[in-house]
From TrEMBL:
<dbReference type="InterPro" id="IPR045792">
    <property type="entry name" value="DUF6036"/>
</dbReference>
<protein>
    <submittedName>
        <fullName>DUF6036 family nucleotidyltransferase</fullName>
    </submittedName>
</protein>
<dbReference type="Pfam" id="PF19502">
    <property type="entry name" value="DUF6036"/>
</dbReference>
<feature type="domain" description="DUF6036">
    <location>
        <begin position="22"/>
        <end position="163"/>
    </location>
</feature>
């Protein structure tokens, strides 16, 4: 069993570049969607360190991988890989399923992060905030509250986005419940 090697650390724009280059070699792809907290590196590379804290960069290739392609790639750049040993973070290959309940137009709103011929489509901050609010884990709630506290997005912008763009009416009550938790975690000014 592979034991986790890295603990969360501050990630930087250079780390995103390194991850995309390594993923391109490992998976033989040139276009990736970057989700999770590290996607903030494309739009706010100088975000406060606590918003750039992670042990991994979550991404998936835009074109699907065959099983015989993704497993060897995971071994090269994933958790407990030589890449993790060298860089002190790893690439977490997630699936496009992570975006199934994301509001329409998310890909068009992505912030392009280009490294030569490789492109990372990083979630726009409002889509990142929505995605984390929907997930609703405590670390996600804290992250979104941090984005609002730091002025990366506004509380009003996120609330309007949730009401106008939530793609499934049955998801809305839960997303709003999580949004209320985000609001409870905001610094009072």
């Amino acid at each position: 069993m592979n034991e986790p090697m890295s603990s969360a650390r501050e990630l930087f724009e250079e780390d995103l570049k390194t991850a995309l280059e390594a993923a391109a070699r490992a998976y033989d792809r040139k276009r990736f969607v970057v989700v999770g907290s590290a996607s903030i590196l494309a739009s706010f590379p100088d975000a406060p360190g606590y918003l750039r804290l992670s042990a991994d960069i979550d991404m998936f290739p835009i074109r699907k991988l065959k099983t015989e392609t993704f497993k060897p790639g995971d071994d090269l750049v994933g958790q407990a890989s030589p890449f993790e040993s060298e860089n002190d973070f790893y690439v977490e290959r997630v699936g496009d399923w992570t975006m199934l309940s994301q509001p329409e137009g998310w890909l068009e709103r992505c912030v392009k992060f280009e490294v030569g011929e490789i492109t990372g489509y990083c979630l726009d901050p409002i889509d990142l905030a929505y995605n984390k609010t929907e997930a609703g884990r405590q670390k996600d709630i804290d992250f979104v509250a941090g984005m609002i506290n730091e002025g990366i997005i506004s509380r009003e912008e996120l609330e309007a986005f949730i009401h106008e763009r939530c793609p499934h009416p049955d998801l809305l009550p839960n997303v709003l419940k999580h949004y209320a938790l985000v609001c409870a975690g905001l610094d009072e000014v």
